[in-house]
RNA sequence: GGACCCGUGGCUUAGCCAGGAUAUAGCACCGGGCUUCUAACCCGGGGGUCGCGGGUUCGAGUCCCGCCGGGUCCGCCA
C-alpha cells in the first residue's frame, strides 16, 4: 500500500531530477512529514554542489517533474521542500485492499534463520531472558510478514559447565515435583552451594564434561535427559507467551560430527593462529582486539567460541539471512566471533543486541537464585488482568473473564517489553508491569474488540463506496492503515521490532478517534454507513494483523 | 586502564543510523465528556537549556571531538 504510493512519488521526483540533469540517490530522501504524505529535502543536499539556493533548486525540479499519477494527487512546492499528497483513488484503494486478509503480505523473499532465547538449560526463564524471547519472536513474525521464509531456532548450550553442574546435581540430589525448569534450578543452585563448601568436588564436574565431550553413551543420556527436562519447562513458558521455536540445535552436535575440527583446520590454514602455552589461539590484534581468541585448550578440549564458529558456519551455509538476538553481555564475544568469521570468509550474522533488564537491587542471576521468573510475572499480571476484566465486564461468565485475562496478560507483558528500543537498559518494575493504560497492549486489543463489536452488530456488508470517507478522522485512519507495509518493511530491514509497537499504538489511536467522532451503525444515509463499515473492517484487519505480528492475541470481545 | 551502549518535561519513552519546516507519546498533575456502535475510550491545560562544553553546517535532539553520569564487557567460563 504505502510502498506503492512511495514508488510512484520516487518516479515522479526522479523524472524531475533527470530532466534537470541532476543525479542523486533517492535512497532515504523521502520522509514522512506532518506537512504532507511524503516530503523531500533533496534540494538542500544539492545546494552546495550547484551553488544555488535550495529554494531555486526545488523550484527547478518541481517544474520539470512528472505529472500526477494514479496514487499521487499532487506535489506542491513549499520553499525548499517538495511535498507530495496521496490521491483520492489511493485512499479508496487502501480501503478496498484492506478488506481482504492477503493485503498484509510483504514483498521480500528468501530464507532467514532467527536464533533467540537460547537460555542455558539450568533453570526457568526470568524477566531478563524474555526480553530476548519477545524481541526474537517479534522479529520472526515481522520477517514472516515481510515475506521471508523463517526458521526460528533455540541453540541449546549442552556442553557448558552450567549443564554439567545440573547433571551433577541430578545425580546427587532429588528433583522435586514442581515445574521442570524450576525443579532443575533448585538442583543447580544447590549444586553450586555444595561446590562452594567442598571445592574438591568440582573435579567430578570436570570429569562429567570430559566424558560428555568424548560422547560416553551413559553420560550423553544423562546430559540430554537433564537438558530436555529443563527445556520442557522453558518451552511451556514460551508457549504461554505465543512463542514457538521451529527447531532446537544442540551445541554438542558440532563437536561430534566433526564440524569443530573442520573449523579448527580452516583457522589454522589462515596462518593467523598461534600456539601459546599449548593452547591454540587466534590473534585479532590487527582487528583491534586486545586479547587473542582461544580456540582449543591445552588439554585438547573445545571451547564455546569454537563450537559457536561451527554453528555459524552451518547457519551461513543453510540460510540467506542469519539473525540472532543476544544480551549486551555478549557484545564483545559476538564481535570477536564475527571477526573470526570474516577472516574465514563465512557470512556474518546480523546481531540484535538488547541491553540488560535489572532489578531495583541489581542484576539477575540464576546461579544465585536471584531472579523474577517469567512464570511468576505472567501469573501476577494475569491475576491483575482478571481483576480488571471483572471490574469492567461483571456480567460476563468466569470462562470469558479468564480467557480475556490470559490474552490481556500475555499482550501486556509482550508489549511492555517490545515497545522499548532494544538498546535501552531497563529496570523491572512491578507497578509498571501491572498497569494496563494507553501505552500498553490492552489499548490496542480494545480498539480491535470495538471494531469487532460494530461488525457483529452490522451483519453483512453491502456494496460500498470508499470515496464517501472524507472527514479528517476517516482520512487519517486510512493513511495509518496504509502505512503498515512501510513499517513492516523498515522493521524487517533494520530488525527493530519496537517500531511496530509504536505503529500499533498510533493505529489504535486513530481508530479510537474515528470511533468517537464518526458513528457507524447510525450513520445516514445508508451509503455512508456502508462506507464506514468498510473502514471498520479495514481497521479491524489492520489491527489484527498488527497484533498478530506482535504475537499478541486479538480478542473479539473484552 | 581499554571497548561498546544509553542520557529527551517529575517518571517512562519515540525521533538519532540516512541533519531540515511548530520535538513523539504514555504515566502522574489540573479541568471536562457515558439516555448515542464496549469510558481498558475521548477532549482541553500546565510542564522541555533534547546531560555539559566545543566543532562541522545555511540549518544539529540527529554528525564529529572532549568531558560528566548510568549500564555492559574485557576467563584455556558459557
Key descriptive features of the protein:
four-stranded antiparallel beta sheet, RNA-binding, 558 residues
Structural account:
With 558 residues, the chain is an alpha/beta fold. The protein is 55% helix and 12% strand. The chain is flat and about 85 Å long. It binds one RNA strand of 78 nucleotides through helix 2, helix 6, strand 9, strand 10 and helix 12.
Give a brief outline of the structure.
This protein has 558 residues and is an alpha/beta fold. Helices cover 55% and strands 12% of the residues.
What is the distance, rounded to the nearest whole angstrom, between the alpha carbons of the first and last residues?
Answer: 30 Å
Amount of beta strand: 5-15%
Q: Please compute the radius of gyration using only Cα atoms.
A: 28 Å
So how many helices? 21
| Main beta sheet strand tally, sense and closure | 5 strands, parallel
| Overall pLDDT score | 94
Instruction: Name the poorly predicted regions.
Output: none
Structural class, judged by helices and strands? alpha/beta
Number of strands: 14
User: What's the assembly state of these chains?
Assistant: single chain
The percent range for helix content is: 40-55%
Shape estimate: flat
Strand order of the largest sheet: 7-6-5-11-12
